[in-house]
Design brief:
4 copies of one chain form a homotetramer. Helices cover about 50% and strands about 15% of the residues of chain A. Chain A is of the alpha/beta class. The first copy, chain A, has a 6-stranded parallel β-sheet with strand order 3-2-1-4-5-6, with helices on both faces. A 3-stranded mixed β-sheet of chain A has the order 7-8-9. In chain A, strand 8 (about 130-135), helix 7 (about 140-155) and strand 9 form a beta-alpha-beta unit. In chain A, helix 8 packs across helix 11 (about 235-250), helix 8 (about 165-195) packs across helix 12 (about 255-270) and helix 11 runs antiparallel to helix 12. The first copy, chain A, is elongated. The N and C termini of chain A lie far apart (about 55 Å).
Amino acid sequence: MRIAFIGLGVMGAPMAANLLAAGHQLSLSRVAVGRHDALIDAGGEAADTAAAAAKDAEVVIVMVPDTPDVEEVLFGTEGVAESLQPGTLVIDMSSISPTATKEFAARISTAGGHYLDAPVSGGEVGAKAGTLSIMVGGSTEDFEQARPLLEVLGANISHIGEVGAGQTAKVANQIIVASTIEAVAEALTFVEVAGADPAKVRAALLGGFASSKILELHGERMITRSFDPGFRIRLHRKDLNLAVSAATELDLALPSTALAQQLMNAAVAAGDGDADHSALVSTVRRLGGVTA
Amino acid sequence: MRIAFIGLGVMGAPMAANLLAAGHQLSLSRVAVGRHDALIDAGGEAADTAAAAAKDAEVVIVMVPDTPDVEEVLFGTEGVAESLQPGTLVIDMSSISPTATKEFAARISTAGGHYLDAPVSGGEVGAKAGTLSIMVGGSTEDFEQARPLLEVLGANISHIGEVGAGQTAKVANQIIVASTIEAVAEALTFVEVAGADPAKVRAALLGGFASSKILELHGERMITRSFDPGFRIRLHRKDLNLAVSAATELDLALPSTALAQQLMNAAVAAGDGDADHSALVSTVRRLGGVTA
Amino acid sequence: MRIAFIGLGVMGAPMAANLLAAGHQLSLSRVAVGRHDALIDAGGEAADTAAAAAKDAEVVIVMVPDTPDVEEVLFGTEGVAESLQPGTLVIDMSSISPTATKEFAARISTAGGHYLDAPVSGGEVGAKAGTLSIMVGGSTEDFEQARPLLEVLGANISHIGEVGAGQTAKVANQIIVASTIEAVAEALTFVEVAGADPAKVRAALLGGFASSKILELHGERMITRSFDPGFRIRLHRKDLNLAVSAATELDLALPSTALAQQLMNAAVAAGDGDADHSALVSTVRRLGGVTA
Amino acid sequence: MRIAFIGLGVMGAPMAANLLAAGHQLSLSRVAVGRHDALIDAGGEAADTAAAAAKDAEVVIVMVPDTPDVEEVLFGTEGVAESLQPGTLVIDMSSISPTATKEFAARISTAGGHYLDAPVSGGEVGAKAGTLSIMVGGSTEDFEQARPLLEVLGANISHIGEVGAGQTAKVANQIIVASTIEAVAEALTFVEVAGADPAKVRAALLGGFASSKILELHGERMITRSFDPGFRIRLHRKDLNLAVSAATELDLALPSTALAQQLMNAAVAAGDGDADHSALVSTVRRLGGVTA
């Protein structure tokens, strides 16, 4: 397939590499510094603008940081919409606002294109290994068309519902992960301050009702203070901003999510913005006067 | 072994039955109405008071609702301490204050006894099946002495540390479970209000970083509105009261735990006190104006 | 003075009327339906666009709902910037983002104009009576130039600091008001549920450390359930969105403010969005199961 | 009148001195070290125990730190109940649990006595000056009997309702004061981090809807970092513990109060427990990474 791939950062570059390896033709835009050569060597073609990349593409994949970035690459100057061919499928794999997604899809549709939102989880590790979880919103037809490509990128592909439903699922994912991290951080800090051994408590709790991927993986990181990302607090905070904004648009109170967002602000203020999100435990420990 | 078993409610009665079935001699105190006959038929001996039950016991097991109940059966009028033989091992399997536990252990020690705190998780189902998780605080010697009995009652026996460490681990467990339930409740309500399908989102999220026993089991209950306990909100709230009190004694801020405690107050006020703790989702939905 | 006044809603219309009454020449844009005639009768001149209104103005006053509205009237198609004369003073009296304010001021400055942010508090009553509190950010020179106009509109004019400082002060105001309303709501609901008389408690507390304008005025509204606005929950929520966004940009955790924001979401979901912000007590009472 | 005064700490000692100065006979118990001589010189009579102090008293005034202290001096060994004469009026001016208060009153009544709860606000300054605010629960008859004494001690005496209503009002007072301090702390820290002048903002906000005794007095302390108590965070936290416990007994969710309680834990952990409660701003600033 002829694919325009726009956004080649930490996540996008290995995803593009996997698509090239699977034999697809890629036109590449917004190549991050230093990632260019390897992808060109692997057969990718550099494009100066998003419009140029999208010109002859059957599928346009977008993987950029935030809602305004998607708006810019789709509808800005020299954006995708300027050269969009009728019938082209735009797949936005960024994590952005569900509401904006619906609006972007409507505009692409008006321009003759099709639209899927397909945000991912699984991080850089999953992007490289092609084992991402991908949550997809859009029509069944478009989903079926995209499926072969998505199966190159991920191991767990779910069609959630109409356009926007993929982003909604991703928001739900980030809500759960954030509050579970905070829960584990409070529990393990409590154990530490109470004078018991967090490692033994973690081990005892795994398998019971308190068991979670977060307790297993991030709990371990908290105990060993191993905060190399993984997923950065700064990025998780961005996703919580999306969650709180989306909830406010829906008149929905999410007090635990809003609290986690505030604690991530504190983590960034303390200099942990580029640490793994398990470093939220450092904020809880500082609040408890634990400085060791 | 000659065991005094004090407290035969929803949890205690099946635990006592399992010990009888394993061939131990039981002297029973505080038999809940209607649970008496089956245990006596199975070979248990009724005692009028905790002191009478403990008189000739090698091991005293306590399984009562809250900190003041433990204090009363141990140190109240006609309590265990009045008849405690030197060397007797007291095992408190109730879920109570870690701080009070240390004080109770010291008083039992002064009276010539030994003390383990060994709270459980796994609920009525685990109590009947003998598959409880048991978190134990106390000396290694006492733990080894108790181990054969605990293995009759549970499947996952952890020696966490000194006296009090078992209760500390149980508090940590209840902190994580409560905040994770709230996290899943916020996420699934967000999905519902945003117009996507919570069941599809739950399925998509299982296996990823948001995966937890709570998402799997309680998430299902939330989606199907199946709130038969399980573990009652009223009881979980009691455990959060312990958590917040214990944290306050330690000058530790647990904002997410305190929030969950308040939301459980709201759940009880709405009439959900005797529903399963997954019914916390009803409070989140009411806050969002979702009444269907 | 020749003034362009853009935005003639609930607040803007009476403010414009006061300026007309004080003898100023007004060119009016964005006249809300039904407010037009009275202002024209009073000597105002209708303009079709913001650019037309601003063409010959010495001062441009903007009073619109939110950040994107200010951006549109200043820099959108047929906006103020298109016709701005060198030296014109733009006074934005809307309540908007402090960060965006700095950016807007820089763009106006580049276009040869001057800029003050001058948000108000005091509501419709204060707008009509000319007794608004006005918090001003900008240079001392610009402030002194604007002062005679601001004194027509308000009774309490404060020059806080550089551009943006007026909006910062307004955000601070809305943070305090929101959390104080929540505090009074929790206290009076506690009293009610505990079986004492909220009116007597309110009276006893006035004069002591718990005393505030909110306890005095909004406390009375809560007790008598008189929720005619005043200031609508929907608008206060918008201001809290500004506060939380601005704090996030600054990596600042404001947990109490974020909680109030979420509770206002719940209030809107319950149908209280157009009630006075003192109706936040209804959300607290519902959480407590108080339905009378 | 013959008064037994039990509890002569920071608050009790100057209150007792005022009663002596007004010509009453005082029998003194639980005299804090160093406060004894002045009160004896002023005509007070030392008693070895609460029972001895109460033996011939017409009125017993209790002013001790917390609920268990009141229980001990009333009903413990050599407590008031042992020597209580029929018709004696017990006035508890401590700040304790409203629920326990009702129980204590019932026991005093059974013993032939009368009971008022009459907690105060106004701090050491008010105690010395005789200008305390006093919130009273109990029968109108008992209130009228106590009034002449209370008027010696305070300037603002309110009969709120039945027994317990005084403590309920005091809890409401502490809820409002705590959350208002947090609100002002968040607002002023926001202003500081945003680069504006907190002193100017405070001045601008006084007089408007954000105006409160706390903004006036504690806001000033926050800005000048003058944290000599005043009222200690440690004691305010104790009162919030009462508030949260009382609310939980009533199945009432008080999320803002619970949050303030947790932040006071953090303040104590940071070493600010004996600072004035306005030092809660230091916790907010630390969360924001402001260390200057």
